Amino acid sequence: MTRVTPHPQARPLGRIVAALPFVGPWLVGFLALVVYPFAATLYWSFCRYDLLSPPRPVGTANYERLADELLSGGRFGQAVWNTAYYALLSVPLSIALGVSLAVILSWKVRGQAVFRTLIFLPSVVPTVAAAVVWTWLLDPKNGLVNKALSIVGLPGGGWFTSVRESLNPADWSATLTAWQAGNQALLPFGSKDGLVLMSLWGVGNFMIIYLAALGNVPKQLYEAAEIDGAGPLRRFRHITLPMLSPVIFFNLVMGIIQAVQAFTQVYIVSEGQGGPAGSTLVLSLHLFRSAFRELDMGYASAMAWTLFVLVLAVTAVLFRTSRHWVHHQGAAR
Amino acid sequence: MNVRRLQIAPLLVLGIALAVVVAWEDRDPAQVVPPDRREVVFWHFWGGRDRAVVEDIVARFNASQDEHFVRAIAMPGNNLDLKFFLSVAGGDPPDLLNQDDPIVADWALRGVLMPIDELASEAEQEELRRELFPAARKLGEYDGRLYALCNGLDVRVLYYNKTLLDAHGLAPPTTWDNLNRINAVISPPDEWNPTRPIGYLPDPRRLWAWGIVFGGRFYDEADGRVTANQPPIARALDWMRSFSEQYGADRVSAFRTGDQSLTGASSPLLQGRYAVVMDGQWRVREIMAAAEAARREGEAVTQYGVTPLPAPPGGKENAGWVNGNLFVVPRAANNPEGAWAFMKFWCGLAGHEAEAARACVAGGWIPPTRRVTQHPVFQRYLNDNPLFETFVDLAESENQVPRPVVPGAALFDQELVGAAERAMYRDDAPPSQELLDGVTRRVQQRIEELADEPR
Questions:
Q1: What is the 3-state secondary structure (H, E, C) of B190-245?
Q2: Cβ of B418: how many Cβ atoms within 10 Å?
Q3: Cβ separation of B89 and A52 shorter than 8 Å?
Q4: In chain B, what are the domains?
Q5: Biggest distance spanned by C-alpha atoms of chain A
């Protein structure tokens, strides 16, 4: 009887040794560029550290400072509010716009490919170039957006020069009061609203995912609904939306992460200052300024970890609630 | 497939070789360090027209030397302080840096900079004490030692459109009352709209200037205390926010868009959008150029004038905020002696007045020392550019004050300007005194934290 000896590389250890040269470069990069900074910033978040002198442990002082600034409306509190405002407006709007555009672009019409390309095109423009273009478009004096609004008789917004917030009822009432008194006043569209508008311009990235998902919706569902007498709106509400819900969920999570990490466009429109009056000081910019302008690496690291935990918590909540509204084809509910 | 690979390989080699040859041929001969000289790696932030002036200074210095050779590297000014700091942290800084960020104290505190007294001889230190303008000294001094050498001051004055003021029968804003009368006549708040010129609109960043003019001090060096909440500074902020209250915060901020562009035809004064603006000496050459262009075209020449910031009752005369361009030498520099030789050449020390005067005339800069301003070359320039004289006079004033040279200066600036922006652009902003109390508390806390850190 012949006994077959397994090839040495078939043994687990041998296989690992054989694989190491292949995964090694990635592993080194992962350890040096991801794991080490991750661990180091956790340590630094409990230290005072300015890059030159060795880190000096200060306990939870940095986290206490963050809590204090959050409660007293200090710069961290302001940054949290600015980021939340941006995420709360830009993410739902980009989902609504992305889904609507995807549905429209799935209609079989002449020039469908051209329209799809046109909608997707802004997504390939580098963020810096797009931000510069938008500062011009939203210029309160000479920008195209305010010019267009003036054609329909509206006064336009102050955009990147204004601290107003379109979600703030007090800003609307101030505008209305001014108008009633016969004074000229701009619409309460401020710097953060400008950033939201800019984010919607790049909605093509999300749209393309919805478009792909739409192609996977079984035709027979629509046919059955049509036979049952469902109109276009009911078909959209009861077939398209549920079938798209896994993709919407994915885009929601990614959108929130992207919104919380927004940096480049904010840096460009505010020239790195987060102005006017701190109205565009989002968390990433505040983190950058604290770390590299004020050389306060400990505080910045504490902020980075708070940001990480925050995003993790929001994502966990979304995953928990997703079972109530995300439909998976063929999955038992 | 193998055949194709074989064809690509020689092509790649050829391409790389070609690129190397082109790069070699393209080397700027002005940047090649002669074998018998010691290199001085010099980072600076000068661009546009000024860059040619800087390159000329470097070329003249290199021609005058048989020991050192300056290799100038123009860096984008944005975040230059960060790039420099990272180069220090990484252990490979340049030998010399020229920039204008308020970072001297932060770097000196951390031991990044070489004090000037370690570079200069006794006689040279004595010359610095005697010749440097007060503002130039204050800009580079931390904890009683000079860490940075100013090579040019940026002084702010009020520029006024004389033609426009004359048309309205208004006097120049040389006094507090004159300044405050201009808005009421040229742009009455209840009639004004953003398509019309406005008299004067304060910029939130210039609380640093008006705070001093109103008689305040942002920092008490003797006590080491932040004093940004002094009543005169609160009064200055009240006065600045009164413009927004009269014209509407949103309209004011929208009207100001684009005003911060530093140079060029977009200068709000030359566009006729303002009767009065606060600005630095670099506008003089724009005004002269605009006048020259108008004369060439046969058009009427708009007349402009300059005046020191007028003081309110109880305020300070010839006062304001001054900034400057500063040389710093990192402690880890390879050739600090070469860096110091170049600094002396540019700043007009140790017998180099003529070189400095020539550079200041070419760049339209305000020299850091009295002796350079008195040099015949610079005096001739003053005769040809009478507007410039006010700047030079102000450079001598003790009331021209830079931002406090303290650790945490970036935070101080952000907090103070942020408070001014809130006061001017937010209807629901707290009273000025309360805003400034907050600034004072937070900045003081940060300064104490930094001072408390072991080095």
A1: CCCCCCCCECCCCCHHHHHHHHHHCCCCCEECCCCEECCCCHHHHHHHHHHHHHHH
A2: 23
A3: yes
A4: 29-154+323-401 (3.40.190.10), 157-320+405-452 (3.40.190.10)
A5: 105
Contacts of A168 in chain B (CB under 8 A): none
User: Distance between CA B77 and CA B74 in Å, rounded?
Assistant: 9
- Which long-range contacts does A311-315 make (Cβ < 8 Å, 24+ apart)? A311/A256, A311/A257, A311/A260, A314/A256, A315/A253, A315/A256, A315/A257
- Beta strands (DSSP E) in B204-351 are 219-220, 225-226, 276-279, 304-307, 320-328
Of B106, B193, B455, which has the smallest distance from its Cβ to A295's Cβ? B106
Domain ranges of chain A: 17-59, 75-325
Instruction: Check B257 against A141: CB less than 8 A apart.
Output: yes
* Predicted local confidence at residue B29, as pLDDT: 64
Model confidence pLDDT, tens digit, residues B280-331: 998 888 888 889 999 999 988 999 999 999 999 999 999 999 999 999 999 9
Please tell me if residue B191 touches chain A, with a CB cutoff of 8 Å.
no
Q: Domain A75-325: give its CATH superfamily.
A: MetI-like (1.10.3720.10)
ipTM of this complex prediction, to 2 decimal places: 0.79
Q: How many CA atoms lie within 13 A of B194 on its CB side?
A: 20
Min Cα distance B124 → chain A (Å) is 31
B276-279: strand order across its sheet = B276-279, B157-161, B304-307
Residue of A44, A47, A51, A52 to mutate when probing chain B, most B C-beta within 10 A? A52
Tell me whether residues A50 and B110 touch, CB distance under 8 A.
yes
Q: Are the CB atoms for B274 and B282 separated by under 8 Å?
A: no
Is residue B428 within 8 angstroms of chain A, CB to CB?
yes
Distance CA B304, CA B387 (A): 9
d(CA B357, CA B380): 10
Q: Is the pLDDT of residue B264 over 70?
A: no
Contact across the interface for B453 and A53, Cβ inside 8 Å = yes
Q: Which of the pair, B78 or A223, is modelled with greater confidence?
A: A223
Instruction: Give the pLDDT confidence of A29-70 residue by residue, as tens digits.
Output: 999 999 999 999 999 999 999 888 889 999 999 999 999 989
Burial status of residue B79 (CB atoms within 10 A of its CB: 0-12, 13-18, 19 or more)? middle
- For residue A183, pLDDT over 80 is answered with no
C-beta atoms of B258 and A289 within 8 A: no
- For residues A27 and A179, which has the higher predicted lDDT (pLDDT)? A27
